[in-house]
Design a protein that fits this description.
The structure is a single chain. The chain folds into three domains: 4-92, no CATH class; 102-174, no CATH class; 194-267, no CATH class. The chain is built from ten helices and six strands; from the N terminus they run H-H-H-H-H-E-E-E-E-E-E-H-H-H-H-H. It has helices at residues 4-13, 29-41, 56-71, 82-89, 102-105, 194-200, 204-215, 221-235, 237-250, 257-267; strands at residues 107-110, 116-119, 122-125, 134-140, 143-150, 153-161. The strands form two sheets. The chain has a four-stranded antiparallel β-sheet. It is elongated and about 105 Å long.
Amino acid sequence: MRHPDIVSAGRHYGCKVETCEPFDPESKGGAENTVKIAKADLVPTSANLLPEYRSFAELADACFEWCERVNARVHRETAATPNARLDIERAHLHVLPEQPHALALGEERLVETDQTIRFGSVRYSTPDGHQSSKVWVRVVGDELVVTARSAAGLAEIARHRLSTPGKPRILDAHYSASRCTGSPRPPKIRPRTETEVAFLDLGEGAHRWLVEAASTGVTRIRTKMGKALELAAALGPERVDEALGLAAIAGRFAEEDLPSIVDHLATSASITDVVRADEGHSAQPGTSAWEGLGE
């Protein structure tokens, strides 16, 4: 009984897949001989020129070079090279379908909205534009190849090194500048009322205060913005904007915090002045109490 996937692949390519007879060495000798050739000529042994292959890709290149060499060699049974026999057999072959059978592409996966797929309990990223669509993944050596269908046909869209659970493979190149690149996007402020526009016009400190206040769940933000504008009308926008920036850094968003900071700025030195500790005095306890220890 042939596996349904094997039968489906044969129909796709317009051929019949012949399988060996169980417990019949003669019918499966061809496959076994191929394995024997690979072990003798490709897998590192004491007779090989290469002691080992640094990667699976290097082994694949060696397989390609070996095929090129043996297919150009005259076969003792047919007295012709395999390349020459293939030219004769092409007249009896039909054109293959443009799209390969799904089994050749690997396993099917759905691209999530965050542009990732899951394979082996590991998340792998994909380029933008394939969200909510199906792709195929297959393992090639120590890499995972992702194939997708596009207007030009099937094409490889991503290739990742295989990873283990807990270590996702996310490439920043798969995310455009306008999309998330692995960290939260900075919020973009969109003022809608005249009060909001006037508040943001105070300066960078007002922008910082609004972003921090919104991210920490501060209540009555619009009321506090109105009071800040009243202070700016009385004391000037520069002083209030500086106080708003300090309030955002210190996380002070209470009702009286902004007036308190404004008063402090008016009566204290500049915040950029460096305060140097007096070396003659220290709040650190001395060690005089330990002088008699061990005597």
